[in-house]
Amino acid sequence: MIPFSKYQGTGNDFILVDQRERQYLKVSDKATIARLCHRRFGIGADGLILLQSHPDYDFEMAYFNADGGQGSLCGNGGRCIVAFARQLGLIESRCRFLAADGPHEAYIRPNGWVDLKMNDIEEVEKGAGFYFLNTGSPHYVEFVGNLDQVDVCRRGREIRYSERFREEGTNVNFVGATPGGIAVATYERGVEDETLSCGTGATASAIAHFLAQPGQGPQAVPIQTKGGELEVRFTPQPRGFTDVWLCGPAVRVFEGMV
User: Fold this and answer.
1) CATH of the domain at 233
2) pLDDT tens for residues 63-77?
3) Is residue 244 part of a domain?
4) Which of 37, 74, 80, 247 is catalytic?
5) Is 157 found in the same domain as 54?
6) For 9-25, what is the mean pLDDT?
7) 193-195 and 12-18: which strand pairing?
């Protein structure tokens, strides 16, 4: 029996398992993890996250995509594991943890929002009609005139399985303008479908939006996803971006045994 908690961050949902005292799952359990994430034959989630002990940090985060494969950083998952750590009594309002792309810090606001510090971004590729950058996971960003008219799954698969990205894969973000910021729809590799929200995708889209319409000084970009509202903060530098934060809600849905 595996005890678990189900969390969602703007509709991006995850199974969280505390492995500090017992190893319930390991990297080789790909089929089991995929079954647990299956929405008809399992618990149902966009991914599964293991919270594990680490001697130098409050905890370590191991993230798995819905297909059971170990993934790179998941931003909304990172925010959810912080809320999970507080539920377990492991932290109070602030923490430092280790993820696939290195160390992160985070804090929980009084209103329940979790602010997650992302790694600095040094390189952004500007292509013909797109931006490509890594915000802990690789992201292709395309600006569109009417986001509601985009077939996210069809167009996302075309790009994700194109000759360039077929082997390693990429997440694909479609971005439209809103009165105060941007709206984002994301096709996620590993899930191989549209998700209601993607934290690293929101971060990549906010950076691309700034590059398309440059401003001055520290930025705070409101982002509307199909699962709710996020905010991305960052400071532009002559080469890249620093002080990058992904901010938004992280909500416990239910817990149980499987």
Assistant:
1) 3.10.310.10
2) 999 999 999 999 999
3) no
4) 74
5) no
6) 98
7) unpaired
